[in-house]
Amino acid sequence: MDKEEQDKLKKQAAIKAAELVKPGMKLGVGTGSTVAFLIAELGRRKKEEGLNLAAVVTTSSRSKKQMESYGFHVDELKAVDQLDLTIDGADRLAANFDGIKGGGGALTMEKNVAVNSRKIIWIVDESKVVDRLSGFALPVEVLPISCEQNFKLFQAEGLQPQWRLAGNERFVTHYGNYIIDLNIDPIPVPSGLADYLDHTVGVVEHGLFLGMCDEAIIAHSNGEIEDRKK
Ligand SMILES: O=C(CO)[C@H](O)[C@H](O)COP(=O)(O)O
């Protein structure tokens, strides 16, 4: 699928998901190019229908800036008790609704917003839908103080680590950390890997989002916009 076609599908999924945003909701807004279409649609609804939200929390400064450009006030997560709904993109969606996120490097905030949401909807084009998690390197955010040790450990474990780069430099996250992408394809036992990473000192967060997504809006190239519920 070329980029133009993929962007068309991303936009369709985003516009469909925007219909599920109701006035007065406390809304979590994810990060990425698919979410950018969602935000544009929410902006249109604000302008044309006066859409008002009780609270908005975003998972990156990019999304925050875009929401604010449409006149939405954006709160910090810690100031909001619980979000009614979070809509986010994803890099992979498996048949059991597990996913990989973090392609845009915002995984830590995305997971924190996700666990504080009553409901999570992902918006994806069909190219991201897989049977089991595969086809996308797993992002792991690590603290700079022990990042070299983490990298060597992952190498020794056969996890095929690779530094995430921005140009010639290491990519730096919102929190000043680095990302190591693990090239495991497919991920044989996602829960085992998540458990290992959750217990590795120096790992801030990883992109395995297991059992979190409740519903996925999937845009297909045959024109179907599927609303898949767990
Ligand atoms: O997890 C993410 C950012 O950290 C994004 O949701 C994911 O990478 C999808 O991005 P896009 O919509 O641009 O394909």
Automatic annotation (TrEMBL):
* Gene Ontology MF, one: ribose-5-phosphate isomerase activity
Pfam families from the UniProt entry: Rib_5-P_isom_A
Q: What is this protein called?
A: Ribose-5-phosphate isomerase A
What positions constitute the catalytic site?
E110 (proton acceptor)
Q: In which pathway does it act?
A: Carbohydrate degradation; pentose phosphate pathway; D-ribose 5-phosphate from D-ribulose 5-phosphate (non-oxidative stage): step 1/1
What family is this protein classified in? Belongs to the ribose 5-phosphate isomerase family.
The protein's matches in SUPFAM superfamilies, at most eight in alphabetical order, are given as:
D-ribose-5-phosphate isomerase (RpiA), lid domain, NagB/RpiA/CoA transferase-like
**Keywords assigned by UniProt, alphabetized:** Isomerase
Q: What does this protein do?
A: Catalyzes the reversible conversion of ribose-5-phosphate to ribulose 5-phosphate.
Residue numbers binding substrate: T31, G32, S33, T34, D88, G89, A90, D91, K101, G102, G103, G104, K128
InterPro entries the UniProt entry points to: NagB/RpiA_transferase-like (IPR037171), Ribose-5P_isomerase (IPR050262), Ribose5P_isomerase_typA_subgr (IPR020672), Ribose5P_isomerase_type_A (IPR004788)
Catalyses which reaction? aldehydo-D-ribose 5-phosphate = D-ribulose 5-phosphate
